[in-house]
Structure formats: C-alpha cells, structure tokens
Design a protein that fits this description.
Immunoglobulin-like, 4 domains, 9 helices, 13% helix
Length: 637
C-alpha cells in the first residue's frame, strides 16, 4: 500500500506558508553586523525581507475532497460518495504546523513540523484525524517555465504519513469505510503538491499557494516519504536541477498486477501556465511501455517500438483538481503489455508526426533506482542517526546492490541573498568543515527487501563552531548505486542534508550578559514577530516578565508546533542551559563588549548572481546561487 493505491482520496485548495524571511540570509545571523533596517525594509524599498514578521505557520486553507478512487472507479461528485466535498482541515485545538528550513544555507528541504490533519463533514469535527510526520519537500523545479525564475513559479511535493490516526465514523461513505479497512491501524499515507506561491505583498494571495494532494492506505513495512515503484526520471541540464530538458519533471508509477493497472503520479511533473491558471497544453501525451529496453536516453521512438497504455487525461476540465494528477492505466486489454511490463521501461510520449513519437521522459536505465526514505537529519553531538535506503529494479526489491556514499556539498552553501543592496560586509561561511564532523560508511549493501541502513554519527563534542556566528555545521552526503548504466539520468535532489549541532558546555554560573543575551538577541533579530507581539528577546526585563512562557516553549519537544526556536536549529545542550537560567534567579552578570565572531572557515568567493527584486530572499535566490556554483565547478548535480 502507498499513496498510489486504492482506495484513495484527492483534495484541492490552498496552503498558507507565513514564513519569516530574515533568516533566509545567513549573514543576518551575525549579531555584531545586524542592522534594524533588515527587519523593516521590503523588497520594493531595495532590500531587507519581504515577510519579516512571518509566524512560520503552515496550514491548509479551503481544502476540500474533490475526488476519490474505489474499486477501479473514479468519483467526482457527492452523489457518488458523500466524502466528496468534505473539508480537509488542520488542528482546531492546538497551534497549526510550522514550515522550517533546515538551515539558511540549505533552503531546499523545507520541512513541516507539528501539523495535524483532520477530515470533517461539518457535523463531526473529525471523521479521522492524525499527526503529520515531519517531512521535507523534494523535486523542487520551475514549474512555470516562462519568464524570470521567481518563487511563485516553483513547485515541489511532500510525501509522508499521518500517524496516531483516530477514526470517528465514516458518514456512510463507502470510500472512507474501505480506506479505514485497507490501511494499517493508526496510519495513513499522504502526498501533496504545492505550487503558485504568492510572495508578493501587493496581491490578495500573499503567503498563499495552490495545493492538490492524496490520502491513501499505508503499511509500516513501506517507506514513509516516497513510494517504491517505477521511477520515471527527467533528464536535467548539468547545472540546473529545476529545468527538465523536455518540460516534464520526474514522477513515479506503480504496477498493480492483481488489478492489472499502472498508476502514474503526474501531480508534480506537468508545467503550469502561471500561478493562477491551469496546466500548459503541451499536446497529446501517452504512457507506453517499450518493447526493447534502451541502453541510452531516447529522444524519439516509432509506433512499432512501444505498446500504448493510454492517453494522459490532463487536458480534461477539472482533471488535476479531482485526481491530484494521479491516473490509472488499465493494461489487461493492451496487446502484449502484461507479458513485458515487469521488466521493460515505461515512457511518456508525444506524437511528432506520422508514426514518430517524442520521448519526453523515460524510466531509469535498466529500471534501477535507489532512494533514501528520510533525507534530512539533525544530529546532537555524539549522536548516531541514520537513513534507510530502498533500491529497486523495475519496482521490485534489488537485493545485494552496493550503494556508494560520499560527501557532496554541491547543492548546499551560499548566502541565500543574491545581490541584496543591503548586503553587510560579512563573509559567507563554508559548509562541510571540519570534514569529520559527521562519519559514515563509504558503502552499504542492500539485503532482503532491497533495503540498507546507513548509520551517520556526529563526532563527540560536535563540529565546534566553524561558522562562527551560526551554531552547528551543515553537511551534504551524496549517494547512488555503485553500478549504474552509463548515461543514467540521476535525480539531483536525491542526497542527504545533515545539520550537526554544536556542543554548548554548561557553565557553573549562567548570566544574562555572559551566555543568554547573545543567543536571545540573535533570535530576536531574525524573528521580530516575537518582539512585536510577545517578548522582546533582546531586553532582560521583557524576558524576565515572560519567563513562564519561555520555559514552556524551550521545554517542548521538536515535534510540537510551539517548540522554540521555530527553526529547530538549536542543540539540546544550548536549550538546557537556557532552561537552567530561566529556572534560577536569572542573574544579569557583567555586560561584555560586543565582539564579532568570524567563521573559522570562509567560503571561496561565490560567483556573481544578478537577481531581480522579486528573486531575493527566497527559494529562487537559493537555486540561482546553486546553479552558478555548479556551473563554476563544471560538475553535474
């Protein structure tokens, strides 16, 4: 079972991501160089941040069940099943979830923490409700392909599970009854695509974007953050992981032998016209299976080279909202498809004329693929965490496969600011230094089920403070099958991002001026929503007055939506020190002179990136910096 299985629900609506953007620029973490203007100026004024007082909230807005799949049938209207039209909402008795970047130097794995999801029909507050297991987006790309790259043109997808699921009835819905029966008790699979984000303060959709998604059965033997299946990989330029060569991005299919259907997820793979209009009409699209497996990436085939499994229905009115881009292709009546489908490549084709067809995307060469389930880690000093790899060949477990693992910082680093006119004269720290800050094996081999575990350990005492004014260090870890067919197209986003926390030793005498104020002032700078509406973290008197709520927030687990700091980028040892000070008499200590703390390691000068105002302080700036570094190094992601 996975989000590609039946029965499943599809939903559509909006999401809100009300994120603070001051922390998008790593240099603003330097307290000694911080300027008050960074909290107030908008992009239209030539710098600063476009949403400085953001709350960090991520929530569903006006999301409804717009379609369902049951017993091979697609359901679109309430008369077919009462679940159609029900509302998918977040928690009503606690704070909403939070959207969190791993680090200002890794903004391409934004995670949702502490979100609850519930289905309501207006009479019952929750027919089911569950906790979203924190997860990062993946497959970030420029889905609106015309015009200058900007945040509203980007898209990505989230795949995770709902845990601690509780059911409170099915409202006489056959789909809900079947879903509750099919899934593992206490669990559901969830996948959703986000696009068309409104980051321009002058538009009504400010901080809102579009969302379509799917909820389906889940079993605990499966990965939690992707579906094992047939992986269709888009060829990408060497220096740009956001621009598929033929306009269609990577996606996953799954073959259900029992039902004789191929289920394909086009939800994050087809281009959009713009943030408020539908899918681009790129012509007739077919899903096919090749009669002969290719040894290289194809550009075209003839009618005799493949078996047609059916037309992609993306041009039908309402198709995307009603299906979240998931379509089933029955193959039982396709001549010869059943005989070759298990070990022959799937392709998406477009008629070119006569009996010739363009190949837009195709299955990975040899059908082989490997993916880490959870690809974002936070490690305390001396802690050992890890990831589970799942290797497959044409969707089946690949046993005995070696997976090569090595440091790869190509997709992380930089400042996240571009050419902001307010750039302070502060160096941008390097990442991945010291190189032994995290340790792991160079190779792991898959066992039964095609899985392998990679242990990743932060060294005792942590990495130190190599970035000076920012805690912890960031490490990128690349991985791939040791034996890949020559010319394989590799997903640039398939790598691990690790934040190794720094160690803070507990002083015998903790004071405001000595230890606490520098920490609180930094977070007060980066998150002015606190100073404006709750507690001024830079002021001793304000902190003392609000000590009770600060003790509560700093003591909450990272999974709680009210955990402080919202960025989840503070080590437990530092939080323990803060809590001990809050529990005691809270002495001021002696004011210390302000001293700039330079990074231990300084990055090489970044290549010049000329950005327009609507590109700064966001994901587009981060991506363009990444592309420039890749081009400069002449390396493929």
């Amino acid at each position: 079972m996975s989000y590609l299985d039946s029965p499943r629900l599809h939903f559509s609506g909006f999401f809100q991501a009300d994120v603070s953007t001051i922390n998008n620029d790593v240099r603003y973490y330097d307290v000694a160089a911080f300027q008050p203007e960074y909290q107030t100026l908008s992009l239209g004024d030539g710098g600063g941040s476009w949403n400085p007082t953001g709350t960090g909230v991520f929530r569903f807005v006006n999301c409804q069940i717009t379609g369902a799949a049951l017993h091979g049938k697609t359901l679109y209207v309430q008369s077919q099943d009462p679940v159609i039209g029900m509302s998918l909402q977040n928690a009503d008795g606690r704070a909403p979830g939070k959207l969190v970047d791993l680090d200002p130097q890794q903004q391409a794995v934004s995670q949702i923490w502490g979100m609850q999801v519930r289905l309501t029909n207006g009479r019952f507050r929750a027919l089911f409700e569950g906790d979203y297991l924190h997860a990062a987006f993946i497959n970030l790309w420029q889905r609106q392909q015309s015009g200058v790259l900007a945040d509203q043109k980007l898209a990505a997808c989230y795949t995770s599970v709902l845990e601690n699921v509780q059911w409170n009835g099915d409202a006489d819905s056959p789909v809900l009854a079947a879903l509750a029966k099919a899934t593992e008790p206490g669990w559901l699979a969830i996948d959703f695509n986000v696009f068309g984000y409104g980051r321009d303060p002058t538009i009504p959709r400010y901080t809102l974007g579009h969302i379509v998604g799917t909820i389906a059965p889940y079993h605990r033997t499966e990965p939690r953050h992707f579906a094992v299946g047939r992986q269709i990989a888009a060829p990408l330029p060497a220096d740009n992981p956001t621009a598929p060569a033929h306009g269609v991005y990577s996606f996953t299919c799954k073959v259900d032998r029992a039902r004789q259907v191929v289920t394909a997820d086009f939800g994050n793979s087809l281009p959009i016209i713009d943030a408020n209009r539908g899918l681009v009409d790129i012509g007739t699209l077919l899903l096919g299976v090749l009669k002969q497996n290719p040894t290289a990436l194809l550009t075209s085939v003839t009618l005799n080279d493949f078996i047609n499994l059916g037309q992609v229905l993306y041009r039908q009115t309402g198709w995307y909202q009603q299906t979240a881009g998931i379509q089933e292709f029955p193959y039982g009546s396709s001549d010869g498809a059943a005989a070759i489908l298990d070990d022959h490549a799937l392709v998406v084709l477009r008629p070119h004329g006569g009996d010739t067809f363009d190949v837009l995307v195709q299955e990975t060469l040899g059908g082989v693929y490997v993916r880490a389930d959870d690809y974002v880690l936070r490690l305390e000093p001396g802690e050992t965490g890890g990831v589970d790899f799942h290797a497959s060949c044409y969707g089946q477990p690949l046993v005995g496969a070696a997976i090569s693992v090595a440091a790869n910082n190509d997709m992380i680093g930089g400042s996240g600011a571009g050419n902001n006119p307010l750039d302070p004269p502060v160096v941008v720290p390097d990442v991945g230094i010291p190189t032994d800050g995290v340790r792991y094996a160079a190779t792991v081999t898959t066992g039964a089920g095609g899985t392998a575990h990679l242990a990743i350990a932060s060294r005792p005492g942590g990495p130190g403070w190599p970035r000076g004014y920012i805690e912890g260090q960031l490490y990128g870890i690349g991985y791939q099958l040791a034996e890949l067919p020559a010319g394989s197209s590799v997903n640039a986003w398939n790598f691990l991002s690790v934040l190794a926390y720094s160690q803070t030793d507990m002083p015998s005498d903790i004071t405001w001026h000595g230890e606490i104020q520098p920490i609180f002032e930094q977070f007060g700078n980066l998150y002015p929503i606190m100073s404006k509406h709750l507690v001024d973290l830079s002021k001793y008197e304000s902190v003392v007055e609000h000590r009770a709520i600060l003790k509560l927030a700093f003591g909450l687990p990272r999974t709680d939506p009210n955990h402080m700091p919202v960025t989840r980028d503070m080590a437990s040892s530092m939080r323990d020190m803060i809590l001990k000070w809050l529990d005691g008499p809270m002495p001021r200590g002696t004011p210390a002179p302000r001293v700039a703390v330079p990074p231990t390691a300084v990055a090489a000068p970044s290549p010049a990136v000329q950005l327009e105002p609507n590109q700064t302080q966001g994901k587009s700036a981060f991506l363009l910096e990444t592309q420039a570094r890749l081009a400069q190094r002449g390396r493929k992601p």
